[in-house]
């Protein structure tokens, strides 16, 4: 047993997250190949990706479903959506059918991601939950390092849809294995490990939901600020320093390494620091990174270092938020983690709209970084008013 679950359960959940994350991330570097394969414009292909992201706003509805039917049901529904989406993408070479497949793919992550966070949280006591969720969230960077090179090889040999055929096969295996998982313990009663080891209890029933929404507003602001910069950093690096597409691709790999480092840091440190304190550290570090970007516009090395610091602290804050939110209302954990996912998507969508608009208007990174700093300050204000779970250090 490791942190309340068997090793094979951990392996299954992490592999499933890698597969679902790979289905989500593979489109970004290979979108031109997909557009050519479907005979459509890059703009039409981008519209598919945007629609897939937008349906993530439905996460809260599926959170209520998982709360009523059980977190395991949410895991199975998410993988089922993945199977349907990959089938539509690979079986038909029609734009609108593939478009529907991408929408269903967005539903897969909207269901599965909060459900796996809830499933793990139900098994792992709060004092160890950052380690547990940090390990699960390492699947995000792992899907990039493992999935993108493999997808490139498959596309070069068998065409743009071949990665989704692989994901269809893997998804079928994962669905069968997930079906055999035990149900998660009820969120209303801590597991024996939780009560014996942590001695923590559910937050007082008098905590109003509006205070939990303050914690979710933190997620919205964090994601808005980061996406606001990330959506234009490639254009900025090209125009300011003349970097090639190949150089940007290599630098993206370095950003992935920083993400992985942050995920492991959360797993190793945040249970001792405190989840709320980890959030403060991540938000402040990200804000400082945005500030540095405003002053390093003429130096490539410093610009790269600032972007890498931004990637690290952003991921540190996001992953720290998951165990924190998981304990705000344990009896309704699935609903609130799903709502958090919806706010995450909303922040990303708004940032993806504001960043390019500011870039088109100013043609410089400083105003964009300033808006992201304001987003970080708003996140700190919301966090200062958000509830503190039991067992959280002062």
TrEMBL record:
What does UniProt give as GO cellular component? plasma membrane
Give the Gene Ontology MF terms in alphabetical order: transmembrane transporter activity
- List locations, semicolon-separated: Cell membrane
Q: What InterPro entries has UniProt attached to this entry?
A: MFS (IPR011701), MFS_dom (IPR020846), MFS_Efflux_Transporters (IPR050189), MFS_trans_sf (IPR036259)
Major facilitator superfamily (MFS) profile domain residues:
9-387
Position of the signal peptide? none
Q: What is this protein called?
A: Predicted arabinose efflux permease, MFS family
What SUPFAM superfamilies does UniProt report for this protein, alphabetically? MFS general substrate transporter
Which region ranges are annotated with the description Disordered?
186-205
Membrane-crossing residues? 49-66, 73-90, 96-112, 133-156, 162-181, 212-236, 248-270, 279-297, 303-325, 337-358, 364-383
Q: How does it sit in the membrane?
A: Multi-pass membrane protein
Which terms are listed as keywords in the entry? Cell membrane, Membrane, Transmembrane, Transmembrane helix
UniProt key word Nucleotide-binding: no
Q: What is its main location?
A: membrane
């Amino acid at each position: 047993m490791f942190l309340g679950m068997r090793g094979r359960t951990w392996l299954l959940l992490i592999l499933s997250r890698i597969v679902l994350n790979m289905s989500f991330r593979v489109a970004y570097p290979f979108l031109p190949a997909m557009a050519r394969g479907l005979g459509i414009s890059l703009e039409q292909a981008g519209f598919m990706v945007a629609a897939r992201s937008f349906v993530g706003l439905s996460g809260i509805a599926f959170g209520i479903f998982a709360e009523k039917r059980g977190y395991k049901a949410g895991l199975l529904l998410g993988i089922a959506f993945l199977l349907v989406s990959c089938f539509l993408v690979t079986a038909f070479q029609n734009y609108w059918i593939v478009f529907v497949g991408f929408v269903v793919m967005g539903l897969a992550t909207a269901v599965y991601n909060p459900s796996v966070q809830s499933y793990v949280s139900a098994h792992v006591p709060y004092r160890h939950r950052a380690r547990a969720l940090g390990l699960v969230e390492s699947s995000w960077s792992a899907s990039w390092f493992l999935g993108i090179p493999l997808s490139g090889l498959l596309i070069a040999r068998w065409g743009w849809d071949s990665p989704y055929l692989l994901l269809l096969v893997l998804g079928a295996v994962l669905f069968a294995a997930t079906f055999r998982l035990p149900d998660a313990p009820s969120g209303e009663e801590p597991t024996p490990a939780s009560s014996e080891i942590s001695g923590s209890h559910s937050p007082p029933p008098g905590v109003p939901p509006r205070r939990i929404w303050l914690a979710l507003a933190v997620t919205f602001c964090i994601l808005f600020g980061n996406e606001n910069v990330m959506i234009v950093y490639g254009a900025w690096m090209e125009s300011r320093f003349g970097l090639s597409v190949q150089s940007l691709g290599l630098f993206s790999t370095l950003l992935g390494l920083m993400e992985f480092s942050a995920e492991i840091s959360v797993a190793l440190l945040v249970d001792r620091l405190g989840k709320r304190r980890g959030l403060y550290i991540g938000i402040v570090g990200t804000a400082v990174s945005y500030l540095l970007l405003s002053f390093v516009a003429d130096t490539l090395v410093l610009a790269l270092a600032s972007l890498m610091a931004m990637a690290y602290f952003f991921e540190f804050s996001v992953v720290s938020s998951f165990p924190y939110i998981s304990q705000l209302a344990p009896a309704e954990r699935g609903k609130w983690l799903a709502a958090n996912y919806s706010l995450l998507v909303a922040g990303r969508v708004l940032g993806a709209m504001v960043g390019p608009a500011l870039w088109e208007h100013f043609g410089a990174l400083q105003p964009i970084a300033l808006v992201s700093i304001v987003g970080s300050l708003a996140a700190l204000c919301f966090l200062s008013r958000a509830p503190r779970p039991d067992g959280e250090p002062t």
